[in-house]
Specification:
Helices cover about 75% and strands about 0% of the residues. By secondary structure, the chain is an all-alpha fold. The longest helix is centred in the last third of the chain and has 38 residues.
Amino acid sequence: MPRGEILAGTPTFGEAFVRRATIMRALKISVIVGSILSAINQWEALLGEANFNVIKVVLTYLVPFFVSSYSTAASLSDQFRLFEEGSEDEAAPKSD
């Protein structure tokens, strides 16, 4: 099978950013990292000693979500770009 068929349909950055797999990975990471950071940052509120800040908690979950989404999309688009560059090099006749 030619290499071009293996990655046929590899998305651009924007397409990779909104792919189901990217979103699901980002959600999993956001739940884990966001929960840990919320527990650390809102410890007093969880114990009832301080007010619970909803905006901070929402941001605590959104930041890891977008970082994960961005890094996944960037990685996929870089892989596709490098693959395309490699395919062009193989297609070009080699000069001795």
